[in-house]
Amino acid sequence: MPEKHQYIFRSGEIFIQNNNTLPVEMPSEFDKWISDSMDLNLFGTEAHVVLLDGDGSKQAVIPDASWIRLRSIFAATDINLSSISSSAARALGIVNWHHVTRFCSRCGASLVDSTTEIARICPGCKAIVYPRLSPAVIVAVEKDGKILLARHSERNQDMYSCLAGFLEHGETLEECVAREVYEEAHLEIQNIRYVGSQSWPFPDQFMIAFRADWKAGEISVDPSELLEAHWFDKDHLPNTPMPGTVAWNLIHDVFDSMSKK
Question: Are 140 and 250 in the same domain?
């Protein structure tokens, strides 16, 4: 019988052995801090996923193992870590959904797990609830060899990143890109093109990355969204998101392509 992998999370961190492999058995010290758990099939591998109370589990010290930020796995060069990045992202995203999806939004009854698929079922009105995924766009706007970067007004205020936002009902992705740039910085853009995507389970985003060219307007930020925004060239970049994030990849891919022209 194949070995079942174990994915143990707390506050955006994953528990690993010091040889950077997933632990097979969960330490008994964690039992009293389990806030949710479930069994999943992760790309053909059976897995047991556990979500711990972050504050409580910090009291336990487990020999030959450690906690690392899941975000750092996306940029890992270690073959063991990089090989689990996709399955770990899927595991965290689904267990986050499972943890907050407790009651039926139609009738208020307690939901139960489906026995045939990843879903929760209402025993009262028979509604089926599937894992939630929130699509969001992120865009690198270019002008005269520079890129538009901004500091957010509410989160991660110590770094500059590309403009981003969630897709709204009725929009195409390209329409969402143009709207977000205009709403947040009052700039018009053109030549919008798709670059790539990344699962971002914090808690349930799916990031879709684009590049675009400035068309018209001067930067004027929406203070409810941004503290400030500026044009930056490659040699004067501010503090930006960490390697492995879609934003880091987008920023550096833009400048790499500029240098090849």
Answer: yes
Q: Which residues partner with 149 through β-bridges?
A: 230
Cα–Cα distance between 114 and 30 in angstroms, integer?
A: 26
The CA distance from 208 to 166, in Å, is: 10
Q: Which two tokens stand for residue 105?
A: 């939004």
Distance between CA atoms of residues 88 and 94, nearest Å:
10
Token representation of residue 49: 């996923």
Domain of residue 201 covers 134-259
φ/ψ (deg, to 5) at 36? -170, 155
Q: Where are the alpha helices (DSSP H) in the chain?
A: 54-57, 70-73, 79-82, 85-100, 173-185, 246-259
Q: Which domain CATH number covers 245?
A: 3.90.79.10
Judge whether 27 and 41 are in contact, CB under 8 Å.
no
pTM of the model: 0.89
Max intra-chain CA distance, the chain: 63
Question: Do 126 and 139 fall into the same domain?
Answer: no
In angstroms, how far is CA 115 from the centroid of its own chain? 28
* 8 Å CB contact between 150 and 232: no
User: Nearest-CA neighbor of 19 among 62, 77, 51, 66?
Assistant: 66
CB 5 within 8 A of CB 17: no
- pLDDT tens for each residue of 109-155: 999 999 999 999 999 999 999 999 999 999 999 999 999 999 999 87
What the block records as the tokens of 12 is 């955006």
Distance CA 187, CA 171 (A): 19
Check residue 3 and give its pLDDT.
62
> Model confidence over 169-216: pLDDT tens digits?
999 999 999 999 999 999 999 999 999 999 999 999 999 999 999 999
